[in-house]
Amino acid sequence: MEELQSALKERDLIVCTLPEKGRCLLTTRDFYPGEVIISQEPYVCVPNKSSGNRRCDGCFTSSNLRKCSACHVVWYCGSTCQKLDWKLHRLECQALSRLDMDKRKSVTPSIRLMVKLYLRRKLESEKVIPTTATNNYNLVEALVSHISDIDEKQLVLYAQMASLVNLILQWPEINMKEIAENFSKFACNAHTICDGELRPLGTGLYPVISIINHSCLPNSVLVFEGRLAVVRAVQHITQGAEVLISYIDTAGSTMTRQKALTEQYLFTCTCPRCIKAGQSDDIQESAILEGYQCKDYQCNGFLLRSSDGKGFICQRCGVVRDKEEIRKIASEVKSMLDTVLMSSSAGNHQETFFMYQKIETLQRKLCHPFSISLMQTCEKLLEILMEQQNWREALAYCRLTIPVYQRVYPGFHPLLGLQYYTCGKLEWQSLLAYWHSVGLPKSTGMCVQDFYSPVEVYKGLKGFWATRTVL
């Protein structure tokens, strides 16, 4: 602990233990938006497993991959990544090669992550891999597991996974109970490694980053540069303040956020947003984000359940919307969502697109304009249109999502910056498509302002710079 404190002191940080929160990370100077607070390489990490999109174990790229000729499980993009990973993979390769081919195919990223954890601990004890103050197995041991809080069904699952790890390693002295507890630690402490557009690439364990506590109103954000985890300030953090990130997507009502945190991380959040649960402004925000549209579509008021329970009353104009009418539309939306999931999994993209358009039409009758579920439907349509390279329609849907993003994410949040950036890219793609449609060469000297207003151009540039200046 002293070595860790000394290393963090150089970064203007300190670890403290609070009775109500456990360990936390505090600042010893002011940090400002965009500043790097701390960064860390993973103690162990694995790429996602996907038959259609393999990734290099070293850098997580999906280009120029070659399979390990011995174990046939791990992939590398070249000799550089293979050599850097060799000390650890040499032992993993031997262990995986002992399994028959069917069992090797069933080894999940979580199992591999645990195998690599124990192999790294072994190599550390044998002085093959050096330890540092911020990367050593003692820091993994100090992580909270919440093992006493999980249900029996989950315990049985962890025990089964521990048996598979034991089968792979074949170490007589291995502690099965400890492996099961470490799986519980993974569930509470491992992070999803994402690319620059926040698409998941793999999973990593970052013991120091895991000390940082959660808030639904965070002052920092965790992003990734390759496999490097980087925590940046998104607001002014004063000296002596706690560094806080969000473990979940903070878009949603207090009830939705609390449910996600309880199920995944086994704690109840008491951040400034969550302690307002049940207060009038929290009730209003929940009704807007997850509630219903006023019957008068020009009103934009939010609805609360009537005292007799037979309907919902608009809090702006007083119009009552019948409960049965809402139930009927909601049931239709749910049925269509179930259908579209089957259509999507079958690869029928055109049918999927038309179904989502119908869902959007119904949700606009049912949901408040700032509804999270409506925004998610627009994003599905945006995704399909971008795959079809229909830039103008994609841009229209992207613009529809911006006001919701502005409402649910702070000004420096990477998701908001990414949405601005996406909008900017679509503005440019739409412009290129227009040039092509009218047969204008790029050398005509025309610029973006010839076809777009300064406000539209500003939106794109704002997104472009937000993702670079802040993140």
UniProtKB/TrEMBL annotation:
The keyword Zinc is assigned to this record: yes
Sample GO molecular function, one term: zinc ion binding
Domain SET, chain residue ranges per copy: 11-248
InterPro entries: H3K4_H4K5_MeTrfase (IPR050869), SET_dom (IPR001214), Znf_MYND (IPR002893)
GO cellular component: nucleus
Alphabetized UniProt keyword annotations: Metal-binding, Zinc, Zinc-finger
Pfam families linked: SET (PF00856), zf-MYND (PF01753)
Domain named MYND-type: residues: 56-93
Signal peptide: none
Protein name: Histone-lysine N-methyltransferase ASHR1
Organism expressing this protein natively: Carya illinoinensis
